Amino acid sequence: MKEKNFKIVTPKNIILLIVACTLIHILYISPMLSDDFEFASYHFNNIGKIMRYSLYYGNGRLLGNIGACILNNNRIVCVIVKVVMILAMMLLIPKVINIKNKVLEYIIYLMLLGTAPEIFGQVFVWTSGFQNYIPPIVFMLACMWICKCYSKKSYQLFCIIIMGFTSQLYVEHCTIIHIMIAGLYLIYYMREENDVKKKCSKVWLLSTVVGAICMFLIPKLFFIENNRTKGYRAIHLNGVADLINAITTNAFTLLNTYSKCVFLWIIFCILGILLLRMVGQNKIDKLMVIIFCIYPIISIFDQITNWSGILRHICILGGMCLCSILVIINVFRLKNNKVKVRLFICIVFCIASVVPMLIVTPFAERNVFLSYIFLILFIISALDYVLIELNIKITYKLTTIICVLMVIGIICLDHIFVNVKKYSDMRETYIVESMERKDTRIDIFELPSRYMFSTYLMNQYYYYQKRGDIEFILMNYQEWEKDHNDFNRSIAH
Fold first, then answer.
1. Which among 216, 257, 256, 212 has a CA at the least distance from the CA of 369?
2. What number of other Cβ atoms are within 10 A of residue 441's Cβ?
3. Is there a single domain that holds both residue 218 and residue 306?
4. Residue 274 placed within a domain
């Protein structure tokens, strides 16, 4: 019997190596953002103090807060953890779907790294955001994969218990969705009468429930009334007008965030056209093909121009909703009921992971990321099925083009962050020089990039606490540059 040869030097591994190296550079040179300044200001000298601080922080995100304290005080560890988690997510998604067309793995990498700049900045770059949003998703995907592959190995159950429990101590909506997925797996294996995997899914569900109980009990048991996080998050149920205002504002943020995920919509529209090749038979279907061809062009135009106004919202947001509805309709026209159910579940979780948060503020781009992952699962699952049914084989040339585009894209991304670092260094230099002059007012500017999360002055005060009499004034870069020409000239020389 021949042993299976495992090649180390493969196109996939080369791409992953390039991605890993570029991510290491990007994340190493990225500046601290928002809450990172506060967490970096706490120099805890033991895990007990970190644990105590995280318990009393004001929410149940115990592991999220602990991780933020540790990672923001150790740049090397922070970069390693981020890169490992991001690569794990990239590798786990195709395993969960069990895709047959391996080229779709590169499409997954493109959609993850080519997401909206605001999402990228808030869940990959911003360490405090990363720590709350990426680990629970990675653990959830790992549990899904282990449960599918469960083979009575004790270490598999151990991993399920640990990851099922720990995944629940990061962020609330991930906690709820993870319970729902574990429950769904249990129902499925009960119907299949698969006792082996039923046992695994029972353990998984139990561990997620115990973790969720801890998540929601921690603030009840440990929250201190005067903690600064009190009132940070609000649920708008104080009358119909308040509720409608919150839903409309957050829904616009949701749709606007999705509209910036250009790579996703290009692939989504390609899926729409391929679905029509399977089920299309009339003139309306031809009209759908035209819509799917036009929308990616409009979407690209929107990102490279400063398009705004009501016409933009009608074309971009309206077109996005129309394309989504058309694809869902054509999914239900498929003949394979098993595939339809699987895709329908992805759609349900895509909606369920974000819609309940529309009544909550603040609602930001990072809140969309879990929904974004389920949409990727939907698109790749559907593409994998359609390509096989239509007997479409991805050529070597097309695969090469996709890989080259990805490499070019990530190099461009790296260039963006090199530019951001210049602005960040300039801002830091100005703050330090102002403190040395004992200035009582220090003007600071927002980093001019969509990949950078907003600056909160309160976090600046935490970080620069050695000077308690400082007043920070926040302005955009153009205003700051106009008011501080002398400093700019000194930096240039």
1. 257
2. 9
3. no
4. yes
pTM: predicted TM-score of the whole model, two decimal places: 0.90
The reported pLDDT for the residue numbered 154 is 80
Please tell me the distance from the alpha carbon of residue 365 to that of residue 370, in angstroms, as a whole number: 11
The total domain count for the chain is 3
Question: What tokens appear for 166 in the block?
Answer: 């720990």
Q: Which residue range(s) make up the domain with 434?
A: 422-492
Q: From the CB of residue 231, how many other CB atoms can be counted at a distance below 10 Å? A: 8
- Domain membership of residue 2 (yes or no) is no
Q: How many CA atoms lie within 13 A of 369 on its CB side?
A: 29
Angstrom distance (rounded) from CA 31 to CA 444:
14
Show Cβ contacts of residue 105 under 8 Å, excluding neighbours closer than 6 positions.
12, 94, 99
Mean pLDDT by 10 residues, the chain (493 residues): 60 88 94 83 80 79 88 92 95 91 89 92 91 94 90 85 93 92 90 81 93 88 62 63 84 89 91 85 78 88 82 87 90 88 93 88 88 95 90 79 85 91 88 82 84 72 66 83 69 55
Q: Are 444 and 431 in contact (CB under 8 A)?
A: yes
Q: Are residues 346 and 449 in the same domain?
A: no
pLDDT value of position 304:
84
**Type and span of the H or E element at 234:** strand 234-235
- Indicate the residue type of 461: Y
Within this chain, do residues 178 and 315 fall inside the same structural domain, yes or no? no
CB atoms within 10 A of CB 91: 17
Cα–Cα distance, 317 to 322 (Å, whole number): 9
Residue 155 lies in a domain: yes
Close Cβ partners of 202 (under 8 Å, ≥ 6 residues apart): 186
Is 18 domain-assigned? no
Q: For residue 334, give the DSSP letter.
A: -
